[in-house]
Amino acid sequence: MEGGILNKLTNAVVDCDIEAATKIAEEALQADVDPVLAIEEGLARGVKIVGDKFATGEAFVSELMIAGQAMRQAMAILEPAISKSKIGRRQALGKVLIGTVEGDIHDIGKSIVSTMLSAAGFQVMDLGVDVPVQKFIEKTKEVKPDVVGMSSLMTTTMLKMADIIKALDDERLREKVKIAVGGAPTSKQWADEIGADGQGADAMEAVQLAKRLIDVH
C-alpha cells in the first residue's frame, strides 16, 4: 500500500495535478505513510522526473513550474507530521537562501532553481523578487544558510549582487556562507569578478553547484 501511495504522489506531480497531489498527501497521512518518504520518494521523485524532461526539451517551463507548485502544496500538508515521523526529521543536504535582487522582478528562473534544489534535498528559503540588499543580510543572519543564491535577469540589476557580497563582507558574514549567482547576464567570469563562489547557467547546473559548494557527493 505504501509503495502505491508513493507512486501516486510521483504521478500526480509528473501530471502537474496540484489537486491530486494534495489529496494523495492527505491520503498518505491517513494511511500512516512516513511523511519523509512521501516527500523524498514521492513528491521529489516526481519533480526530478519533470526536471529531467525539462533539461532534454521534453517538458516546458510551465510544466516544471506547476509540478513545483504541486510539490510545495503537498509538502505543506506533510511537513507538520515530520516531527512524529518514524524516520525523524527530514535530513536536508544543506540550507539555501535564494532571491532575485533588488530592482528585478523576474521570477520564473529563480523559482525553477528553488524547486529543483528542494527536490534534490536542500532546505530552501525563497525570498522572492526585488529583494533589497538589507533583506539578504537580515535573512542570512536569521537563517544561517550554507549557500546564498542571487538571481538577476538584467544587466542593470546584476550590480546589486556585488553590493550584497560587499554587505555580507562588511557584516563579517561572507566567510560563513558560499555565494552562487545566476541569470542570463551572469557568467563564471562575473562570479569571479564580484567574489562569488560560482555561477549556475541553468537549474540543473545550480543544483550541482550547490552540492559542490557544500561538498555533498
Q: What is the CATH class of the largest domain? A: Alpha Beta
Give the N-terminus to C-terminus distance in angstroms. Answer: 32 Å
Which runs of at least 5 residues are low in confidence (pLDDT < 50)? none
Q: Which structural class best describes the helix and strand composition?
A: alpha/beta
* Overall morphology: globular
Q: What topology, given as strand order, has the largest sheet? A: 2-1-3-4-5
Q: What's the CATH topology name of the largest domain?
A: Rossmann fold
Give the SSE order as H and E letters.
HHHHEHEHEHEHEH
Task: Please give the oligomerization state of what you see.
Answer: single chain
Helix content: 40-55%
Portion of residues in beta strands equals: 5-15%
Count of strand segments: 5
Main β sheet profile: 5 strands, parallel
What's the CATH architecture of the largest domain? Answer: 3-Layer(aba) Sandwich
Number of domains: 2
Characterization of the model:
With 217 residues, this protein is α/β, with parallel strands linked by helices. The chain folds into two domains: 2-84, Methyltransferase, Methionine Synthase (B12-binding Domains), Chain A, domain 1 (Orthogonal Bundle), CATH 1.10.1240; 95-213, Cobalamin-binding domain (Rossmann fold, 3-Layer(aba) Sandwich), CATH 3.40.50.280. It contains nine helices and five strands, in the order H-H-H-H-E-H-E-H-E-H-E-H-E-H. It has helices at 2-14, 18-30, 35-55, 61-78, 108-120, 133-143, 159-170, 188-194, 203-213, and strands at residues 95-100, 123-126, 147-151, 178-182, 198-200. The protein has a five-stranded parallel sheet, with helices on both faces. Strand 3 (147-151), helix 7 (159-170) and strand 4 (178-182) form a beta-alpha-beta unit. The chain is globular. The mean pLDDT is 92.
